[in-house]
Predict the structure.
Amino acid sequence: MKAMKMTVLAVLALGLAFTLGCGERHSKKEVFYLISADSALPYWQTAAAGFNKAAAQYKVTARVVGPDGHDPQAEAAELQKAIAANPAGILISVADAAVLQPGIDAAVNAGIPVITMDSDAVSSHRLYFIGTNNLEAGRLGGKRVIEKLGGKGNVVFFTFSGQPNTEERLKGYKDVFASRPEIKIVDVVDIKGDARIAFDKTQDYLARTGDKKIDAFVSLESASGNSVADAIKRTATGRELVAFDVSQDTLDGIKAGTIDATIAQKPFTMGYIGLKGLDEVFHAPPKQLDKDYRVDAFSPYPVFVDTGTSLVDKSNVDLYTAGAAEGAK
């Protein structure tokens, strides 16, 4: 009887120790980095909110860094600083794959898990990508432009040249336009992270008339849309504009009619599940961190986590406005 009692006590003690051990899985000493492509944009502030929320739930430390403006070289410098701090993991958006891939590979080679979000470096040693199916996002926007123009017209795009996600979005538009030869892409403007370039170029193109008239503008990133809308509003020309992302200014532009529609992503979700994914890798690391898991049929990791896209216009803009207000609480 005494032996049985001692056995029960031992089992209970073991269970308590296991419970306490699980409770101590996380620590503020575990530091995770989110490296954004442009910390000044509301899009990245939303992503940071998701990253920070997951960190608060897990009781770990989140650090959000990144250049204040579109600057791949400055982002690469932030990546090097993060690697030097030897964090538990890095979540990064790739402004330029050629510039950032060496740093990503260096981090992984140093034993630091890296997951990409929003914009990928597919040939790097990152574990996987979290974000939007940008090709489909472009196709979604392309169908909207065809609908609004009746299958005929001149279109100008605004983009960040060399950024993988915007390149995929442009390809999506071109895929859809291929079936409508009367839709012409007049220009693809690299705004180089400066919204004033978008404003000035829009004013120039709005002055065109006749066969050279621009019928629609498309923003492939979140920086240019509101500047293009402002130029359209000032000239009162009534041209079509399809934007990208759902900042409050963009939603207000849809309500006012200066923006026809925008393609919505989920940056909060990307940041939120990005930290959780890194935490899982940190606590249950693979035998080989730099393995190409894309070609492993038994990989513990996905290749791509699609957080979803949708088209926002006057029919559903109030739902997104309400959602933004709720998320800000």
